[in-house]
Amino acid sequence: MKLFEFEAKNIFQKYGIPTPKGKVVTTPKDAESAAKEIGKPVVLKSQILVAGRGKAGGIKPASNPEEAYQIASKMLGSLIKGLRVESLLVEEKLDIVDEYYASVTVDRSARSYVVLASTEGGVDIEEVAEKSPEKIVRLNVDPLYGFAEFHARKIVKKLGFGGKDLRTFSNIIYSLYKITMDYDAELVESNPLVKISDGSFVAADARIIINDDALFRHKEFSERAFLEYGEREAEARRHGLSYVDLTGNIGCLVNGAGLAMATMDLIKTFGGEPANFLDIGGGARAEIIKEGVKILLSKPDVKVVLVNILGGITRCDEVARGILEALRETGVKRPLIVRLVGTREEEGRKILEDAGINVFKDVEEAVREAVKTVRG
């Protein structure tokens, strides 16, 4: 789960990492008031859950409150990288001397966290790694020992810092690591971390991505977790379903991620286009099946619903009941093609056939029928 920049900066401040003076606003008038309160030139930053806002026009400077009002009027409600801007962070414009990079993230190949720092800030770290890898210092964290303050100093020394700058920069890096641990984060990043004219370091930007599987430990973000998803994806997550919207017209409901991927591959092989990925998991009861089918039926682009169940701990009769309950509740009529094999298969087949729904045993036959139905 991604945090908005202002949320990440609030956390940075709790851990002693300086951030620019700023305020979140939702109207042009509030933007003007915030600029007056700051009392100096400001930067208006769109609060959207995507990287690369600056290059896409999501960050604009304003020299006075009146200009902040005009810029906010254009930014609020606009689309940046396909996301609507609902709020802005109005921040003081910093007198920047140098820009750096610092982050803690996951190195999956090493199965550990990795701490990264660079003298090249304000640009994509991938670009620095490609063109000037020697400018990046990295340290993989021993999962048993952890990351200590002397590790942070070691990293900053390699960047060429000494004296007060060494202490300040290393303290910031150590705080980033503490945030990572306390918030179960996959990424904690400041890019750029800047040095301003008075010699102090300030996190001009902040990013935090929290591991979805750890959100039960962070109740304060329980509802925030759904903001970065589309309406159907958010609804699926509320019911514990794995769902991803796609651009096709054949809705898919399958048990098991591997089987779902194979089903989508078959649809493509036979000339069709899947409208989604939907894995109901193992052992899903009728109530969950019902919600999954309702999500598929809510998508206007879906011309036919394909259900592919290989029952093990998932009972075919529960699947059948869930399907019928969804049809009764929604009243939406779309062609429905079902392949049921496995636990309580005969019971499930009878339930559906009594309701006039044809059930297939062969998956390829079912997928071919779905593609044929879409083509009319």
Alpha-beta classification: alpha+beta
Q: Look at the structure and give the mean pLDDT.
A: 94
**Beta-strand fraction estimate:** 25-35%
Number of helices: 12
SSE topology string? HEHEEHEEEEEHEHHEEEHEEHEHEHEHEH
CA-atom Rg in angstroms = 26 Å
CATH superfamily descriptor of the largest domain:
ATP-grasp fold, B domain
**CATH fold topology of the largest domain:** D-amino Acid Aminotransferase, Chain A, domain 1
Low-confidence stretches: none
CATH hierarchy: architecture of the largest domain: 2-Layer Sandwich
State the helical fraction.
25-40%
Query: In angstroms, what separates the terminal alpha carbons?
Result: 41 Å
What would you call the shape? elongated
Largest sheet, in brief, is: 6 strands, antiparallel
Q: How would you describe this structure to a colleague?
A:
The structure is a single chain. With 376 residues, this protein is of the alpha+beta class. The chain folds into three domains: 1-20 and 95-228, D-amino Acid Aminotransferase, Chain A, domain 1; 21-93, Dna Ligase, domain 1; 230-375, Rossmann fold, CATH 3.40.50.261. Helices cover 37% and strands 25% of the residues. It is built from twelve helices and 18 strands. It has helices at residues 5-14, 28-38, 65-75, 125-131, 149-158, 163-182, 231-238, 257-269, 286-297, 316-330, 345-354, 363-375, and strands at 22-25, 42-46, 59-62, 79-80, 83-84, 88-92, 96-107, 112-118, 136-140, 185-196, 201-203, 207-210, 242-245, 250-254, 276-279, 304-311, 336-342, 359-360. Strands 7, 8, 9, 10, 11 and 12 form a six-stranded antiparallel sheet that branches. Strand 17, helix 11 and strand 18 form a beta-alpha-beta unit. The radius of gyration is 26 Å and the shape is elongated. The mean pLDDT is 94.
